[in-house]
Each structure stands twice: as C-alpha cells, then as structure tokens.
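quick one before i forget lol
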Amino acid sequence: MDGDIKGHFEVIETTGATVTLLSELIEAKNIDISPDEATIMCLGIYEDTGSFNFASTTEKDFMAAARLLSKGANLNMVSNLISREISPEQISLLNEMINAATHYNVNGIDVVITAVTTDNYLPDFAFLVHKMVKMENLNAIFALARMEDKIYLVARSRIPEVDVGEIVTPFGGGGHNFAAAATIKGSTLTQVEHELMEKLNRHIKSRRQAGDLMSSPAITVRSDVTCIEAGNLLTRYNINALLVVDKNNGSLLGFISRQVIEKALYHKLDNVPVSEYMTTEMAVVASSADLAEIQDKIIENKQRVLPVVDNGLLQGVITRTDLLNILVRQPPYGNENAPDPYKLPPLARTRNIVKFMRERLTSRLLDILKTIGEVASSIDCNAYVVGGFVRDLFLYRTNEDIDIVIEGDGIRFAKTFAKIVHARIHAYEKFGTAVIIFTDGFKIDIASARMEYYQFPAALPTVEMSSIKLDLFRRDFTINTLAIHLNPKKFGTLIDFFSAQKDIKSKSIRVLHNLSFVEDPTRAFRAIRFEQRFGFTIGKLTSSLIENAVKMDFFKRLSGRRVFTELRQILEEENPSRTIIRLDEYQLLTVIFPSLQADNELVGLFNSIKQATVWYDLLFLEESYMKWAVYFLALIRQSNKKGVDEICDRFELPPRFRSLFGKERFTAYRCLADLEREKAITNSALYEKLSGFKTELILFMMAATKYERVKKSISFYFTKLRPTSISITGKDLQKIGLKPGPLYRKIMDAVLHAKLNGRLKTRDDEMKFVKEYVS
C-alpha cells in the first residue's frame, strides 16, 4: 500500500501465502532445504490459505506446497500445529457473535456486522470469525469484540465488491481484499460501529447496473391496442404494467398500469386504444445506470416500471418489485410461494464452475460447449446449456442430452454452428428450435429463448420469444432451471434464478408457481418420476398442488398421447415400481387406466420384471428391446381384446404396438400356460415354442411365471438355444443332388432340431445327418 516501508529488493505478486513467493525464490536459486525447514514453510502456506480453503488461494500456493512436500515436509506436524481445539469460553463467544449478527444492505450488498463484549482476553478471535463465516455461509462480515481495554476488528470477504483491507486500514489495521484486522484503543464499541458503517457506505460500490437488473425483452403493447386486449396481456403474463410503444416504429411512448386498465374496463371503455389513457411522463435509465440512480427514479417518480433505454432503443424494464427485492434481500423464491416472471430476483446467483466442468465432462463435450459459445458470440447471441444436463452435472449423474438455449435467433445460430462442425441440421422454424446431428449420430437440441403461456388448463403452450430468465421460468421444477453461460467471456458461469442449487442440496422437488399443474397437468407425473429417480421429496406445497389438480380433474383435458408419453418415460426408469406406487397414492393411476391399482400383484410383477430385465441386460447381447413395453404388458395383463383396443385407441399407438399388446400377447399367454403344464420338454420343442416371440414377450413370460423350472427353461433358451445356428446351406443341398424347393426348409429345420437336442456337433455331423435324413 502507499506509505509502506520500501525494500531494497521486493517481490510482489498475488498469492495466498507469502511463503509461496519465498519457496519460488529458493527453488530458482537451487537452494536445498531440510525436511524441518520444509515443514515450517508448509505450515505458513496452510495457515495463510486456511488449508487452501480461502478465496485468496492461488494455483501457485498448491504448487509451492507440492514442492515442499517433495522436500520432506511433515503434514502430520503441520496438521497438529494448525488444528485448534475450541475452548468452552470460545464456544460461548462464538454463540454470542452469531446471535448478535445484524445484516445490513449496503448499496445492494449484504454485509454482516457483529459486536460482542468479554471481560477477559480470548485468543484466536480471527479463527472464530472464520468459523462463523463457514457456519453461516456469509459473503462479508465485520466482527467487533471488546476485550479488556481494546476493541478488536476482524473482517472477512468472499466477494470483490467488499475490499475489507481498504475498509479496515483507516482503523490502524491492514490486510488485503479478503481478510483484514485492526486493534483499536480509546474508543467505545458504539463509536467504532458507527464509524464502520460510514466506511462501508463510502467504500462498498455495487457493480450491478440497470443492464444486469432489467428483465429483457420487456413485454410491450402497441399504442393502437384496445384496453380489453391490454387487460388480457396483463392477465396472461401476470404483470402490473405494460410499456406502450409506437405502432409504426416501436419507439417508447409511455406505460399503462393494471389499475388504469381495470378502471377503463369498469367504465365500458373496452375498445378504446391504450394511448388515450397511458402515462407519457416517465423517467428512463440507460443500461449503465447504477443502483442509486435506479432507486431515485423509481421512488421519486412513483413509477411501477422503469424502462431501460440506450440510444433511443428499449433494452428492458426494471419493476418496483425488482428494486424492493434488491434492497430488502428477500427474493420471492425463498419458499414455495409462486414467483412471477417480472417479480423474479433481478440478479441470479452466479458462480464460475469451469474447474468443476473439467472434472465432470469429457474433453469432447467441453470442446463442443466452448465452440457453441464462440459461435454464439460471433453472431452477437448469448448461448446457455440448460436443464437436465446441468442438473445431473451437480448430481454426479451421466447425461449427454445437451439442450442449448440461444438469446437471439436460434435457427440462425444452429445453421452457423452446423456448418462449422460439418453436422446436419433439422430446423423447426415455427418453434424456433433445431436439432444438430454430428457425423457419429451425437445430437444437440437448440432453442431460441422463449416464454410459454396457456390459453386454458391442460392446453398445449403458446410460445413467444423471450430472454433466458423468462425461458427458465417456463420450466417445470426449480431443479431444472440451472443454466451455464457458454460465451467466451462468461464461459462456465452458473446461473441460478430460482434457488435450484438449494433444492438440489435439500433434495426437494418444487414447482415454480402455483398454477403449474393447472397449465400442464403432466408435470405431476414428472414430479413423481424425478422424486423416485433421484431419491428426492416432493415439497409440501407442490404435493398439495398435485392433489388439487387431481381433485379439479384437470387431467381429463389431456390427450391420450401426452399421458402415454409420460407413462412410457416412467416405465423406462430403473425401478418404476416405486413410481407406480406413488402415482397410486396421488390417485393418478386412474388417469392412465380407470381400473388400474398398485396392488400387491402388480408391484410383485413389476419387481419380477426388473429382475428379468437386469438379468437380460447383463447378458450383453447385441440386441435392443423396449423395456417399457415389458412393464406395459404387466399393466394390461388383465385386459381383454376390447379393453386393449380401447387403450391403444386412446394412446394413439401404432399398429406394431397394437399387435404386440393384442394378438401376440394372447398367444404368449397360451405358450406360457403350455410351458407351465409340461414337466419335461426337449430343447427343440422349447426353441419351437419361444422362437416366434419378440424379446419383450419372452421377458414378460419369464417374470410372470411362478414356476422356477419355467424361468430356468426361458433362461436356457436365451443363453444356449437362441444363438444356435447350422452351417449347411442351400448350396450344400444342391451338391448332393437335391432340387430347390420346400424340402430345403424341412431338411434345415430337422438339422437345427437335431443340433438343439445335442445330436450334432460339427459340420461333418450335419452333412452326415442330411444324407441319412434324405435317404
């Protein structure tokens, strides 16, 4: 700092520990050190970096510790020296500090001040402050303690907006951006606290500007739109004010509030243009405006909405609720109360997770994501990877289904990206979506940021272009609202508007707003599916909203195809029996089939199917099958032909599924009954019975039978009989003088049956058998 004593030789670099610089100089000069010296230096690094946990820790600190370890540093001794046992007096003081903590909002930044008094001096006050930071998860804290005749000030910060070194230095102390301390004499605790507040207000400057806080794009209405139409828009988007723009050039003219619209409608002015009653005198701000300017203009002008305008162009809008959320630090998503897309926290929780991504993702996936960000920047768009991919990243689950959201023209981005990586593209202009298919078949889904609204309960959504914040708001559950920015300057920045990380950590399934199941009842199926897949719990409010949707019977509006889509995904899960039980608890099984119940028989059959499919999967046969269809066969096990036809009609199933679940299923039932009656059966007869059935039906028979010998027979068929083939061909039969015809099939079937029954081993055996058989 200015005024410090200057040295004849100085090394000044950003590191977490001074010893790190010393160790680099020692290595550069090839000076050897003893294990004891290495231990003492290693102790310095561990102490100054908080065992590498402090935010000030750098890569150099790790490298220096590694070098010292190679020189024989004793980590057991380091651990013994830096470990601190907390005395009962210190525990009592820490408890007082937590109870005395007061949160202050300083220019939009949450700062904690705690002040305590003790008659005796207690050592390691800084250590207690560090403990409190970790326990309470604080970003910035200033701890004051009067001990005997002195006041000790210890400050810690984990955010760049609060430079504790700069704030604490005037008190006669010092430090750096993240940690500082001072000892103060001749002042009372109250005096120091007041002086500290002055310093905080002077030095803490929020870096948040209007461009960061605004919702974009703003929802606007043309000046010639009628009051009744404007009222419908206010209801559709659940907002309290609309910006009014010129019908010709789109320039901002004013705004109109919900109260004005409601009064106009009360006075039967439904068809009068909003331009007649809009407020034209209003303040605006540039995207570079700071929090103080935003606050002044909203409060002084008593505006519901504050437009953000750059060079005459409308960029976005900041609402009065946005400002309130910043100032009181009470975002509406702290519990399950329904958030509003224009009352969302204006700033998402963000943090950089590039290192985490490198640990969790393959180099190929990481390269693809980087390229996506670079291409998006080249065409002035923002790109984000969103949804289940990001969720599963934090759940340590493998998921390579990449969903990309583009703030801008998603179709244009997809075409540009596909050209660069030499991939194919399927574009859907109507929805602003596209699928990019790489040469090896790997796919990426692209979508323009969009917002959905529903014209009536259970309707398919109407889609409009939007921003990433509103795009995330349309999703089903908070855990699916995480996004990672991919543009080069912000690559790896995690965005969390709705406390998704908190819900993932607490293992909770929560909807984003109270009408979620009214708008899309299929979300109830997904809530239960996610609950069982991840071992989570459906939140109390979310659970009651599902029950309300069942009671109001919103599911009757759903098409059979949409219900089947959700059912199929449930049956594809690793263990669908638990999900079926939960569906029954919510009375949702009757939505699938009116008479369906999760009784002991069905649950037992589902568990048997799981055993059968797991066994089959472990055979690693290069043959795909539809696991969901095996479970579906269990659901319809008691349905007759008419019932199956009705089910297939309702779910709009294609002919191949109708045949599988109808005629083929009944044939399989008869086959299973035969197998259960017959005490002994030859290999060829077993092969003859089972070879005509699809894998799904055979696995269902294996799970459905109560006879262990039948299970073993089916297992034997899969592992030994089905792979059996013969080596002779039609050419071999021609060589022995047989003319082509139906006889060929009869001969080859006879050879196959003989081989299945163990009578033939080699090709010579087969040829000898053919000659005898023909003669």
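fyi The radius of gyration is 35 Å.
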